[in-house]
Amino acid sequence: MQTNPLILENGHPFITLPEGTLLLDTGAPTSFGRVSPIMLDGQNFDLPPSYMGLTAQVLSTYVGRETDGILGADILNQFDILIDLPQSRVGFSTAPLECDGEVLLLDFCMGVPIVSATVSGKPVKMFFDTGAQISYLQDNCLTSFPAEGSLTDFYPGIGQFSTDTFRTPIRFGRVDYQLRCGQLPPLLGMTLMLAGTAGIIGNEILRERPLDTFLAVGGLSCRENTSFKLGAALR
Hints:
The chain is mainly β. The chain has helices at 56-63, 73-76, 186-194, and strands at residues 2-9, 12-17, 20-24, 32-33, 38-40, 43-45, 50-51, 54-55, 69-71, 80-84, 89-93, 102-109, 112-119, 122-128, 135-137, 147-155, 159-172, 175-182, 199-201, 217-221, 227-230. Strand 7 (50-51) and strand 8 form a beta hairpin.
């Protein structure tokens, strides 16, 4: 397994490679960057310079720091991945990785992982997007939860947008979270519905968990027998 430094800055996870620093974004179908090629676990990958008009220079203004591009689903899906924010690391392996915890099977749309959740007793499908600093729910029930203020975010092809947010109870399997959720712009929200999903789970799910239940660690297998695990990684 190749292990690289992973930091959370301005609500976004950045991986440091010898070639440069990239936003780790499971919600982006295509990687891009101003550094190419990059190497992960012994494999070289060429990166296009942009995606849907988004360049590293524009991305840097959106995320509030210099970054060399996005490491997206087209490359991530070729590995088992261990995302360990408390230990500031991310691991990539072409061999299966083990991670103790709650196991949730994944579906995919354009390579982006989809996880099942429960909101207000209703089962929903939601994209898992490590590039999203908060979660999103396109449901009228959202405004019934405690308000958390407004936030400015961005999405490739859409640009920046602002949304009101609410502290929302969401269950994954047997694990309960209180996640900060907003609503996406109407056009992007319609795209979710066409994919049969009701929202997006952001990287907040990986940041904090009480130590007597689950650590803030995720294991993600985007290959055969796909699964997402919320739990404690093998050290």
